Each structure stands twice: as structure tokens, then as C-alpha cells.
């Protein structure tokens, strides 16, 4: 009976040690790695797995290996000061800037940010939630 209890305890300890074996890796990403600057205003991970960073020098898409930076006058943006980013249920990115609200449809071949509004009050509530 004691051998059975000992064996059961050993098996349970082994099982719990395996269940806690998940490790998380954190990367410290800076301008040396590809960010346009080290000050990041907001961060999200979209439904496709991309990380998006808003900075005062543009919005940055990171796929885990490389960066794609959209700066002022790139793809329809008329500002570089990106404040907030969120994703809606359809997978569109919504970017709040000091010049207004932009929508980015990642599924189109155009990859253009469409200027939606110039009034900050019209999109402030949109960014108070992480997902629409």
C-alpha cells in the first residue's frame, strides 16, 4: 500500500513538472533592431500574429523576424505621429494619429491607410477597447 502511494506521488510530481514546463521568451526590441525610435506609444498583436507598434515616427509591423515601418507620406499617411492602434472584428487596423483616424485593410493588395476622420473626439472611444 505504501509503495503504491509513493509511486502515485512520484508520478503526480512528474506530471506537474511537465505541465509547468512552458517557457515564455521575451525580446527587448529597440531602434538597433529596426524600430524607428525607442519610444513606443501602443502595441497590439493582430489576428494574423503580427505585432504593431505605434511611435512618433510611424507605425511598425513586426513578424517576429523583420520590421516594416510606415512613415509619413507612406501608403496614404499624412503624419508620422502615431498614437493608438487597434483591430476590428474584420481584421482591419485602426490607427489614431494627431491628424485623425486611419483604417488599414491588410487583406487588400493596395496596403493603403485610408483617412477616415480629422476629429480626435470621433475616435477616442474606439481606442478605449482592445478589440472592436
Strand-helix topology:
Elements: H1 2-19, E1 40-45, E2 51-55, E3 58-62, E4 67-70, E5 82-87, E6 93-97, E7 100-104, E8 113-117, H2 120-123
Antiparallel strand pairs: 1-2, 2-3, 3-4, 5-6, 6-7, 7-8
Query: What is the number of helical segments per DSSP (H or I, 4+ residues)?
Result: 2
Q: Low-confidence spans: pLDDT under 50, at least 5 residues?
A: none
> Helix and strand succession?
HEEEEEEEEH
Strand ordering within the main sheet:
1-2-3-4
The end-to-end span amounts to 58 Å
User: What is the 3D shape?
Assistant: elongated
Q: Can you give the mean pLDDT?
A: 75
Major sheet:
4 strands, antiparallel
Helix content: 10-25%
The Cα radius of gyration reads: 22 Å
Helix vs. strand class: alpha+beta
Number of strands: 8
Note the beta-strand portion.
Answer: 25-35%
Describe what this molecule looks like in 3D.
The chain is elongated. β2 (51-55) and β3 form a beta hairpin. The protein has helices spanning 2-19, 120-123, and strands at 40-45, 51-55, 58-62, 67-70, 82-87, 93-97, 100-104, 113-117. The strands form 2 sheets. The protein has a 4-stranded antiparallel beta sheet with strand order 1-2-3-4, with no helix packed on it. A 4-stranded antiparallel beta sheet has the order 5-6-7-8. 17% of the residues lie in helices and 31% in strands. The mean pLDDT is 75. The longest helix is centred in the first third of the chain and has 18 residues, at 2-19. The protein has 132 residues and is of the alpha+beta class. The protein is built from 2 helices and 8 strands, in the order αββββββββα.
Amino acid at each position: 500500500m505504501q509503495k503504491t502511494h509513493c509511486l502515485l506521488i512520484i508520478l503526480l510530481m512528474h506530471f506537474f513538472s511537465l505541465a509547468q514546463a512552458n517557457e515564455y521568451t521575451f525580446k527587448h526590441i529597440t531602434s538597433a533592431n529596426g524600430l524607428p525610435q525607442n519610444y513606443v506609444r501602443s502595441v497590439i498583436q493582430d489576428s494574423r500574429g503580427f505585432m504593431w507598434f505605434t511611435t512618433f515616427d510611424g507605425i511598425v509591423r513586426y513578424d517576429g523576424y523583420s520590421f516594416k515601418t510606415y512613415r509619413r507620406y507612406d501608403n496614404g499617411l499624412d503624419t508620422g505621429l502615431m498614437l493608438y492602434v487597434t483591430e476590428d472584428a474584420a481584421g482591419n487596423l485602426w490607427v489614431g494619429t494627431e491628424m485623425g483616424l486611419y483604417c488599414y485593410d491588410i487583406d487588400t493588395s493596395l496596403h493603403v491607410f485610408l483617412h477616415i476622420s480629422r476629429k480626435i473626439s470621433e475616435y477616442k472611444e474606439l481606442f478605449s477597447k482592445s478589440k472592436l
